[in-house]
Design brief:
Elements: H1 2-32, H2 45-65, H3 95-101, E1 108-110, H4 119-125, E2 129-131, H5 138-150
Parallel strand pairs: 1-2
Helix pairs in contact: 1-2, 1-4, 2-3
């Protein structure tokens, strides 16, 4: 019986996840369409709210479809309380759960990830701090960008 359930559930889950991924891509594309600044200026208004609410909700639904049920104990720190927060050890796709539960903050990511089809558009909508592995001054630039965002008094989303 469990093999029969797997034969039915696995394709159904894959179809649902593909649909959610395409929907997230479309919403990220809409939010960043005609965006002035291309990541140098924080998203504002409906664009920022759309990313925070819809992408967070879609990510939660995706993990539920995969069989994850996450319970948060305590209160998530607000942007004013913690402009920067650390998720450790970050080494897997479980980091996405943290992002979804905290309202899709900005992340620190390799610059190469921004050019990935579909995922690059979604990642770009989160306004990541892009780290270039080819640039020898990348660490200094990354620290400076994180500091600038942390001191922006809420203009930028939290940085994870």
């Amino acid at each position: 019986q469990s093999v029969l359930q797997g034969i039915i559930l696995v394709p159904l889950r894959v179809i649902c996840l593909a649909f959610l991924l395409l929907l997230a891509w479309l919403l990220a594309l809409i939010a960043t369409l005609c965006e002035s600044g291309r990541g140098c200026v924080p998203l504002k208004g409906w664009r920022r709210r759309m990313i925070q609410t819809t992408l967070s909700g879609l990510t939660r639904v995706a993990f539920f479809i995969l069989g994850f049920k996450v319970k948060v104990t305590g209160k998530v720190a607000s942007l004013q309380e913690a402009p920067i927060f650390v998720a450790a050890p970050h080494s897997s796709f479980f980091d996405v759960i943290i992002c979804a539960l905290t309202g899709m903050p900005s992340i620190v990511s390799r610059a190469e990830n921004l050019s990935t089809p579909v995922f690059g558009t979604i990642l770009r909508s989160l306004q990541p701090v892009a780290v270039s592995r080819q640039d020898p001054d990348s660490r200094k630039k990354t620290v400076a960008e994180i500091t600038k965002r942390a001191l922006s008094r809420g203009q930028w989303p939290q940085v994870i």
